[in-house]
Please model this.
Amino acid sequence: MKGSPIDRSPASDEFRINERCIDCGTCWTFDPDHFAAGSGTAVVAHQPIGASSQRQALLALQACPVAAIETSRTLQRTTPAEGFPSWICSHAAGEVFYCGWASQRSFGARSWLIQRADGNVMVDVPRWSAPLARRIQAMGGLAQIVLTHRDDVADHQRWAQAFACERWIHRGDADAAPSAEQVLEGQEPLELAPQIELLPTPGHTPGSLCLLLGDQRRVLFSGDHVWWNRDQDVLVCSERYCWWDFNVQIRSLQRLQRLDVAWLLPGHGHRQHFQPGLWTEAVKQTLTWIQAQH
Ligand code: SF4
Model:
């Protein structure tokens, strides 16, 4: 059942989208069973039925950066206190979670948590949330925050202060987080910690970078450099959403082609799992398509 983008019907526990929606994609990438993209705003694609479906939709409501998802107060009170971070995948180098609590200041971009024995890493930053901070504390706190680019820094200062951790950003975008403790210079990869590498991928912005977890079957945190389009089953490197230099962005994508990527976890768009070899094929396909357009 397709819902209206602005539905003020008072139906008790039904979910609805109000006029505050900024079309950030947080809800339908996190909970595609119930939310979908509409024409410039999210829509409720299917009302959740049953406790576990409602739980997922309530977490999407909590993650929404602008309180654009509504349901009854009674149902909202049942939102799980420990829903986020939400587990995404396991790698020998760490467990990976989605942080939820998206920030309007980052246009709803996703933030990720890597849980590791020798220090957790947050990739981009959600809006400040005391319940989320308590959960992360219980999971071992934060050793480092990596900011993939200037758009997705949200409440970085608050998170860094709360956990007394260092923040990393590339020189090209450093003015977006001038208080960051560490600035990555140049275009060479940097080993941040064992099995964690920062790879400069300029283009979307001058200081865009990706984080790679693991040496094999790697998890690629791509910021806004590339993402997955689930409808078309294709890797997207977008000229429309390139804020700096698309030719440079293409060269950055070429750098990623030979990697052994198992998971793509972007700031926007869908995440995707790749069987061995399929990441390289996906990059190749996208580069070929871009070349044909220019
Ligand atoms: S998360 Fe909120 S703002 Fe973002 S698309 Fe969904 S309803 Fe709209």
In short: Residues 17, 21-27, 42, 64-66, 68-69, 108 surround iron/sulfur cluster (CB under 6 Å). The chain has a mean pLDDT of 94.
